[in-house]
Each structure stands twice: as structure tokens, then as C-alpha cells.
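Protein chain data
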Amino acid sequence: MGAAVRGSNAIYLLDACQSVGQLPLDVDRIGCDLLSATGRKYLRGPRGRVSLYVRRSLLDRLEPPFMDAYSAQWTDMHTFQWRPDARRFEGFESSVANKLGLGAAVDHALGWGLDAIAARNAVLADRLREGLDQVPGVRVRDQGEQRSAIVTFTAEVPSLETLKRALLDRRMNVSLVSLELARLDLEPRGITGLVRASVHYYNTEEEVDRFVGAIAELVR
């Protein structure tokens, strides 16, 4: 995508909320102009904080949706000047505790190393997919050449919501992806809903195997 739009007037915004914290990211290699991400997912930071990268050459082409005394300077009665950096997209009122929490989460991930995290996640996710592939009535639905630590699958059960609650009773957390949340992807494939199980580097092989065993018990 970056190569396709390079040299044009197009603006390339990448939503990387599922990638930040689990995969190495390089905005220059990607070629994006903006990259946004939430801190609460693979970074495991507090809910309510997001990060936004803006390529400096793009700053003057974009106008923030609001302004205050933090994002802009009131230069005289009839003019103002935006901040010279991407903080023009921030507001004065924000949670300091959440900012500190997000910073701590970033430092923690960098301390482990994104390459090491990605490698560990790949081992766990592959183990999970291989295990689920062996369960009758379960079908892994992930696509792509480089798959992430998010494992999606369908299960032949009366209700995915009931399956989710049964897993929660076993202290196992999954999320459900409904057709309304991913219609462009799911509808052409004839899928009405997915179960999403996400592993992270702190998970163990034994936990992955226990999860597969629970799915095998529940999908009968």
C-alpha cells in the first residue's frame, strides 16, 4: 500500500491497533503518513489512551477537529498558530495517569524486544492453530502469509455466546466477532461470526493445550 500511494497526493492512514505491541513496526518501511494505535491491546496499557504518528511533512495538510490553548497559540485577535508538532492533535484535558500507564507499557514491551515478542507469539499461535485444526467441528479461519497472534475460528455449536460463557467459567477469555463488525471480510466468505483467541508471550504451551482441550470438550 505504501508503495502504491508514494508520490501521489493520497494520504495513507494505517490503523495498527492490533499490531502495536506484538509485531515490530517501522513507519518508514510501511510508507504510511499516519499510524494510529490503542494502548489497551497487545501493549497491555490502560484503556482510554491512543497514540498517533503523523509524518512531519503532512502536518500542514491536516486540520485537527478542535483547538484549545494546548494545541494552538492565539497570536492576535483574528489569528492563531497550530503547534509545530503532532501534539496539535491532542487536547489539554487528558488523563495523566493513563499517559504514564501507556508509557510504562511501551517501555515494558521494548524491554522484552518486539522481535522476541513476535517470535514467541508466532510459536504459541501456530501451536493453537494446529491444536484447533484437530478438533472436529472447529475450523481455523485465519488468512494471509504472515499470521498474527490473533487466532480466529468457527465452531459447530448452537451459540458462540454460550461457548464464550462456558470458556469464561473455565477462566479462559475469548472475544466474538459478529458479522456487523467485519462485514467486508466475513460476508463474502459466508461466515456469520467468529471466535477470537489471542495469545501473548506470557502464555505457556500448557495453557494453549488446555484451551484446545476445553474447546474439544465443548464442541461436541
Q: What stands out?
A: The chain has two domains: 2-112, 114-218. The domain at 2-112 is CATH 3.40.640.10 (Aspartate Aminotransferase; domain 2). The two ends are 43 Å apart (CA to CA).
